[in-house]
Amino acid sequence: MRLRVRPPARLHGVIRVPGDKSLSHRALLFAALAEGTSTLQGWLPAADCEATLRCIRALGVEVERPAADRLIVHGRGLRGLQPASAPLDCGGSGTTMRLLMGILAGFPFPSTLVGNAQLSRRPMERVAEPLRRMGAEVRTTEGHAPVYLRGGTLRGIRYEMPVASAQVKSALLLAGLYAQGPTTLVEPAPSRDHTERLLWAMGATLEQHGRTITVYPAERLSPLDCAIPGDPSSAAFPLVAALLIPGSEIEVTDLLLNPTRLGLIEALQAMGAPIRVIPEGERHGEPVGRLLGASAVRLQAIEIAGPWVPRMIDEFPIFAVAATQAEGTTRVRDAAELRVKESDRIAALAAELRRMGARIEEHPDGFAIEGPTPLRGAVVHSHGDHRLAMALAVAGLIAQGETIVEDAECIGDSFPGFVKRMQALGAEIEMEP
Ligand SMILES: O=C(O)C1=C[C@@H](OP(=O)(O)O)[C@@H](O)[C@H](O)C1
Ligand SMILES: C=C(OP(=O)(O)O)C(=O)O
């Protein structure tokens, strides 16, 4: 599938984006380990989360699905998973593979985790190595999937994490539930904290002091009855489009507003964007609310580095599009992690945005973009990366002439209904086979 994109007059309207991807993975995985029945509404029916659902069923968990975004999960308790009869297929989802590694480290049976070609290029030793220290048998394939794992009796460890990664942190916190004694992690910078909040809401014992988090062994988790708010990483695309298209004004309702996820919004506000965040309370320990965005008269370049990076880690493709329209040189540093996502997001962004006339320089750990630069329509490629495909579609909305985004089906990995929602706001985006 490819997208044909033309500049629209303006974007206008109110939308809700699909459920948060990080929360959808976690709510399902943790509900499977709870004692009793959990109900998940607003669950994200995207390819990445479908991979988690497939794996959880393969591990013996019964899940009813009265609607695409509604799951009833019959939890089997913390020790109740059964060995899968075939390798667990995590598709292209890093979150699925890494969080499952942490959970399966608590089980004495052998498991094999596999993924597609893209996921099989991504690093897995970052989870395997600390799990071995906890006492699990873990073998990777030269650092990658397939991963062969046999868990069992684990010991709590103290571990200084070399990278700020919520997936590594989550895997080790989950393994820590099965350990003898507490497990303490020290993060180099705060990453998204959904695992901590949700496990806490389900009755687990965790303590946090600054960048140090301790989890205690657990006997049971309580089931969940939750409505998952919209994904701020998906809202980022219509939001940036509205900023860049003159005369636009949009509202995104029922959105997750966890501060560890709002780095992009803070960056855009610092650049001069008229964005308003309207908190509306908490659900399951997570702040939720609305977002208002309108077109910006002028954006100023900024520098993003250090602890700011993990708080907007998935938003750099769309941030780069905004940066092409900002005055001055926008610089991103300390973001080498972008090279090990669905694509090498630094190299891919530079290659594709250049085709549209952007002035972007690639660095080992980030990039620099000079702006403002008028973009021109071009044929661009997603590199099989959903966030790149959507960022390029937004770039097409502000480019002169027509833009074709090739290989755009990957958008379904995180944001089913992206095109429909953008069209509802007035965007000229067509899907072609
Ligand atoms: O824990 C999560 O749900 C995620 C953590 C991040 O990955 P890392 O932990 O590898 O930074 C992020 O990029 C990914 O989209 C989702
Ligand atoms: C990196 C991402 O996801 P994952 O690591 O779960 O594949 C993403 O959604 O941008």
UniProtKB/TrEMBL annotation:
Residues 5-422 form the Enolpyruvate transferase domain. The active site is at D314. It catalyses: 3-phosphoshikimate + phosphoenolpyruvate = 5-O-(1-carboxyvinyl)-3-phosphoshikimate + phosphate. 3-phosphoshikimate binds at K21, S22, R26, S165, Q167, D314, K341. Pathway: Metabolic intermediate biosynthesis; chorismate biosynthesis; chorismate from D-erythrose 4-phosphate and phosphoenolpyruvate: step 6/7. Pfam families: EPSP_synthase. GO terms for cellular component: cytoplasm. Monomer. HAMAP family: EPSP_synth. This is 3-phosphoshikimate 1-carboxyvinyltransferase. It comes from Thermoflexus hugenholtzii JAD2.
